[in-house]
Design goal:
The chain is mainly β. The chain has helices at 14-21, 165-169, 187-197, 202-205, 207-213, 223-228; strands at 25-30, 36-37, 52-57, 61-69, 83-90, 95-99, 113-121, 126-133, 158-161, 183-185, 239-242, 247-256, 265-279, 282-293, 301-309. It folds into two domains: 14-133, OB fold (Dihydrolipoamide Acetyltransferase, E2P) (Beta Barrel), CATH 2.40.50; 151-309, Thiol Ester Dehydrase, Chain A, CATH 3.10.129.10.
Length: 310
């Protein structure tokens, strides 16, 4: 759910990005005067020689300077607030602009020793170079969770005309559909929704405080966020309503949030047709939709959505 801008490699800088994908820091060194160079260039900054060779280095260095940006430099970086932007001086001499991770604000000090962190973006095939304290141990990477639809949930749809009230009423059932695909509700997604909606109450966004004070043992998603995510949960319905010129979301007869969705949870959904009635403006269908945390019997969201077919 992140739309952060990513670097674009050039012909000159491509070896740097190729090395990062292999979790290796590589910079140029002049063959003539042995000067180490960064950013990537075509000539030595000291003697102007064009004989430059890419060589692996440790990536270790010291913090030359840093800035804490409490207002995101771009809305896409709201999940990193405050952004810990840094200039790192490598042991070989060159300085690199980067960001600091896995460090609290009070731990950051100019001159502190740093080591590289390789931040893989699997979707885009790009690895970013970040830095953390020399003695910090980055947390184990979370498994990538993809939205999936189980093959077994595929069903053949029966077309029902919205004007055929008897056929529409035959869709009413006490039984719920099969489950939708699963979707992970990450802390980054929760933070982005907080930035967009203004619902940044600590129980959603302050991880450390939530661990200490929240009855849920950590941060939880906003109920409105979980409800909105219904549009990304594709429920395999056995029917398709046809024969209408327009379909509108008329509102909800009932909307409840019976249980929390902890950050990092996976959710899925199912539904049933609760009621159908004819009106002067068309046919009204009430679709009872339940969103659950995967493995939890109690729903996280109950929404009796009223749809009008006209």
């Amino acid at each position: 759910m992140s739309f952060k801008p990513l670097p674009v490699a050039t012909e000159t800088s491509q070896p740097f990005w190729d090395a990062l994908r292999d979790h290796q820091v590589s910079i140029q060194q002049c063959d003539e005067c042995q000067t180490w160079i960064f950013y990537p260039r075509q000539h030595c900054t000291h003697c102007l020689s064009d004989k430059l060779t890419w060589k692996p280095v440790s990536g270790n260095g010291t913090l030359y300077s840093f800035t804490l940006a409490r207002v995101p430099t771009d809305p896409a970086f709201a999940d990193e607030k405050p952004q810990k932007m840094a200039v790192v001086q490598l042991d070989e001499g060159p300085r690199i602009n980067s960001t600091l991770v896995y460090l609290d604000e009070d731990e950051i000090q100019v001159g502190m020793r740093l080591k590289p962190v390789f931040d893989d973006n699997e979707k885009e095939g790009v690895t970013l170079l970040r830095f953390t304290g020399e003695h910090c141990e980055p947390p184990a990477p979370e498994p990538v969770v993809k939205e999936t639809v189980e093959p077994a949930t595929a069903v053949e749809k029966v077309q029902v005309k919205c004007t055929d009230i008897d056929a529409m009423k035959a869709l009413v059932s006490e039984e719920f559909s099969a489950w939708s695909n699963q979707l992970e509700v990450t802390q980054a997604l929760i933070n982005q929704f907080a930035e967009l909606s203004g619902d940044d109450y600590w129980i959603h966004t302050d991880i450390e405080k939530a661990k200490k004070l929240s009855p849920f043992g950590g941060t939880i998603a906003q109920g409105a966020l979980v409800q909105v995510l219904m549009t990304k949960l594709h429920i395999p319905l056995a029917y398709e309503v046809v024969g209408f010129n327009n379909m509108v979301n008329y509102g909800s007869d009932k909307l409840r949030f019976p249980s929390p969705v902890p950050a990092g949870s996976k959710i899925h959904a199912r539904s049933r047709v609760k009621a159908v009635e004819a009106s002067s403006s068309g046919t009204q269908l009430t679709l009872e939709m339940h969103i659950h945390v995967v493995g939890q019997e109690r729903p996280a969201v109950i929404n009796e959505l009223v749809i009008k077919y006209m």
